[in-house]
Design brief:
33% strand, alpha+beta, three-stranded antiparallel beta sheet
Amino acid sequence: MLVSPNGLPPRDIAGLFVRFTALIVQTEYKFLGTIILTYLFIMSVTYSWNVAQLERHTAAAGDDQDGVVYTVHYTIEAKDDTYSSSAYGSVGLDAPEEGYEVVPFADLTPELVLTWTKEKLGGDEKVAEIEAALKAQIDNQHAPVSAAGFPAGWS
């Protein structure tokens, strides 16, 4: 439960009570001798990257290609305590360079494959961009900027 600085529960704001598990930032403003307290609620969003599927060459492609992954299908889920948003994508991997030691297919780990995926996407900058887009979708769920439906009384 949120508690105001004076120890009392927060007042109803615009008829809404919202449950927050968040960082609360308090800011004081002085206006005509009155201290106005504002609170900024920063919702904690967690991101989960997962490998959805791998496409690889088989022995029929040649001994040097057996088990080499050429496409990674991945998902990203962002969620806070109330809402979630997700995305699906695919990325093609370059063939291993000459002399590069190929990790056997059976020895691949999700962490390793996701490292390759994020690097191929464009590294930390692109990862941050994707995560920011998912967070924006969650923010829109908290405070929608559009809605669909009919006026009351329509049948």
